[in-house]
Amino acid sequence: MVWIPGGTFAMGSVDPLARPDERPVHQVRVDGFWMDATEVTNKQFAMFVAATQYLTTAEKPIDWEELKKQVPPGTPKPPDEMLKPGSLVFTPPDHRVDLRDVSQWWQFEAGTNWRHPAGPESSIDGKDGFPVVQVSWDDAVAYAKWAGKRLPTEAEWEFAARGGLDGKVNVWGDEPIDPKHANTWQGHFPDKNTADDGYAGAAPVAKFPPNGYGLYDMAGNVWEWCSDLYRVDAYDMLVAQVGPGKVAVNPTGPDKSVDPRNPDAPVVRVQRGGSYLCNDSYCASYRPSARMGSTPDSAAQHLGFRCVMKK
Ligand SMILES: [Ca+2]
Ligand SMILES: [Ca+2]
Known about the structure:
3-stranded antiparallel beta sheet, 4-stranded mixed beta sheet, alpha+beta
């Protein structure tokens, strides 16, 4: 882990690529904390599972009574095949598709989980140094607890990601993204990945330069869970709460989630940092201010986490 000295920073962005949920930019102070220098790896997660016999969300059958609460009322029960243990696998089309339809490149595959992250036939043999993926928010919290750590708040995560470069667009500064900076997507999303950065999928952790605090892959590689509930207007609410121009101290997020992309989900948690699927044509979420939300039982092939702890 590396020590992130506390400080005050401008959270959010007004960059042209920034989305409404990144505004308004507001002043935030966080106390110092320790943070994992890398995303949690398969090796680390395997130690947790070996010690606890923990079963991840994707290894358990899907409870339709629970899922029903997250989808529009009246949604018919999916076929049994879709309720088997499994998760989402990236299945790129060979042609251009409507970027509004994520089902064009995400498929639920039974038997997919952290040990088989790209479908039931895939494996993590020889991939100890890769970030663990196909872990839900619940799984990430369970790991953190076992390790004597916790998930970062969004404010801690963004402060750490900026690496001391306050107000910059990217974790390396204002220079536009280049394949040398981070593991993202080059080419045309989602049908043509030229992998100019050397990786078509996830890379082992710490293959790209660290930021100013010595943290790796805060931009790209895999998304990272944070502890906060996601709310599209979280910053408006926070500014209203502390007062315009005032500094919010160690904010922990709103009490209730609101996500237009998951309108029926009662609980949505924040993810940060983007992934190897990020491309400016679709998702410039490798920027330190970019935010995303998913339900806490969601897992995916490009989603992992890292932990923090106090002194
Ligand atoms: Ca890449
Ligand atoms: Ca990352």
